[in-house]
């Protein structure tokens, strides 16, 4: 491996800028770090170059640990966004600088300079000053200069940022060519996805300091694992869909897409589907579609943009609630973005307002367990309050999902609070639809319950994603009630909780590990917080005998988080009573969040009553019933659903 | 050009922005004239007076005045002190601006304010501070006397006072320049394997050289012309601790106008020379950039 990063973390004035990034870059590979500005990619690049120290983790270049090696001894070539040429030196002196540092003979220097200038096609400009060159030429000089001392690694920090489109493309080609010719391991930082696609062997996508996903460009585009990557790489429609044995359906209209991967999640549940604009087919009627029918819609807006036609299609009544991508303003009605080729335009010309049938060529389901949030409250006032919580809205905005609201009077009823948890199902005053009452695990809330979500066109989904309740006295009972009725994730939210800086993760039983990790990874991708898995062993005489066991659990947790979810987390081992230790750890600072995995609802009352009665910290409870054996988490390829 | 163009059109053209009319021309010349008269009255006339008075008794009297042993000693003292003060303050200015532009540390703004202090405090007070520190009644007075070191009323005192007063000139010139030029070139040099000294001498110093020269020139002009602070610490010992500005004052008070103005003309020449160098530096500096 040319470059190996192991859990690299960099904090800056308390904020985590680079958050537990681990990465292997092979010899001769062209790796592109892509992400929005402020995502930590430049900091990471500077850390590799040695210009920025790291707070945690290790960096190795070609197997040599350089974490504490000075920048000048790392032997990397670095190209800056604004060229950083020595303005008082000629092009020749600039390029020969690194050779002069190495006391190379003048003749050898000149030969190397000629070679480099040929490589970047700038022959004959040796005696110019940087100010006499154009931006593109200056950047070429910068590339030649960075390569002069034959570095093992070439790092480029937004090298095309300040150039116009034409020159950018030309320079892009040059850099790709130089990289191929020299076979040098290259890391390029950019926020331009087109650039990343054009150059990269592999792309790593960073946001909020975390390396979210990495892979081949086409792979990442076709099969993103996270909402952020799906929408950042190209345009994407994100839809909330229900997945069942029959297939996928959107909205309340049971439009079942025929094919779905087998054996996974037999029980109906909510998923997030990615629908690329170019994968949607438009036809005059359902029968005319050559692909799987998805919904009806009406063309709302048509934009001509050269090769492609961009349309916004309003979904018909049946599927309108499926759309979850919230625009920045949040007020836009649900639209699907569709692009069509010139050929498609000629075959089926469209005008605004026209009714169309939508078909789906290809659909990708994100393996994210946190599909949406559903605020559950005993009355509308509490619901409104809870729905307006800044942390919840921040999460929903970043996750590009919606917050549905479910008013459930029984959540606040005396019967609920007084009832024993195991009897909750039988307690009176709880409105459940007849079908759901018989099978609690697949209960869906009845559509007749007064619901603020009606504006969304939502007509009572099964517990999609996480149920959100307010942290009040007796919150524990509400949690139990919800878990007994089919909720798998319950988020207990204290009033005006701050955005977390640290997320503590703990599961009671190893069989809850998978689900808890999946939820943790999903949440952590959207907050700039550090993840810490807290393993807790009971205190006792057999301490030394248990220690290896505890360490083993920690290592397992870490490697699974990394392998399955691409989540890097720190681990720590504590001894004592679980609830007490967690409370102690939480008490250290207010901006923390706890993710707690359980396998038995009764455990909550037995072991966490003190923690959950009226928590001061946001707590996300992940419930994974122990007796149920779930199929393995779908592999990425199995997630791909093909139609037609 | 006017042929064939109707008057109305010409008038309309004249009202467009950027066109000269009789009125705008008149206003322009009036403004120029006022500023010229002002300049001539306030700046040029005194300058001319200096030379006129210096040569009022002929060239011989002028030369005599300049060749006077006391005058020569004053000139020597001025040059010697400048030769010490300017390099020391240049080094300090470079170091201070480097650490302010490149590093973040606690108390940075306090440090910046401290550098500005000599500009804000009257030079006389600066001189008094020196006396309070190093004079016989001062904090270090007895210790200095015990070790037979004389600072006040001697060359070291003059140098320290001048140093204090001209402290900010180089640093003030370099700090904004270094902050504006950023750190990228240095970082590039470091990744190419250059060490700290090489980075400084091959990259940083050439990068800021014009600003540095400008700062040094200002510092030099102020050092040679400093009166207030030096006056307090020098003790006015003729032929020993008299710098040129002090010497001019003494001659003037003795009604030796020719002598006073002859020395003054030398100092003025030094100042004018400095300004000329400064202008040249600015020109080449801008051209190179």
Chain-wise SSE layout:
The complex is a heterodimer of chains A (644) and B (289).
Chain A: E1 3-12, E2 15-25, E3 30-34, H1 41-49, E4 56-61, E5 64-65, E6 76-79, H2 91-101, H3 106-119, H4 135-147, E7 153-157, H5 165-182, E8 185-190, H6 193-199, E9 202-207, E10 210-215, H7 217-222, H8 227-232, E11 237-244, E12 247-250, E13 256-257, E14 269-275, E15 280-283, E16 292-305, E17 308-315, E18 335-341, H9 342-347, E19 355-360, E20 362-366, E21 373-377, H10 380-387, H11 390-398, E22 403-407, H12 414-418, H13 434-438, E23 466-470, H14 475-484, E24 489-493, E25 502-507, H15 513-524, E26 530-537, H16 543-565, E27 570-575, H17 578-586, E28 592-598, H18 601-607, H19 609-612, E29 619-623, E30 640-642
Parallel strand pairs in A: 3-8, 3-9, 6-7, 7-8, 21-22, 21-23, 23-24, 25-26, 25-28, 26-27, 28-29
Antiparallel strand pairs in A: 1-2, 1-4, 4-5, 9-10, 11-12, 11-14, 12-13, 14-20, 15-19, 16-17, 16-19, 17-18, 20-30, 24-29
Helix pairs in contact in A: 2-3, 2-4, 3-4, 4-5, 14-18, 15-16
Chain B: H1 7-15, H2 22-54, H3 58-67, H4 69-102, H5 108-120, H6 123-134, H7 141-146, H8 155-166, H9 168-181, H10 184-191, H11 196-225, H12 228-234, H13 244-253, H14 257-288
Helix pairs in contact in B: 2-14, 3-14, 4-8, 4-9, 4-11, 6-8, 6-12, 8-11, 8-12, 9-11, 10-11, 11-14, 13-14
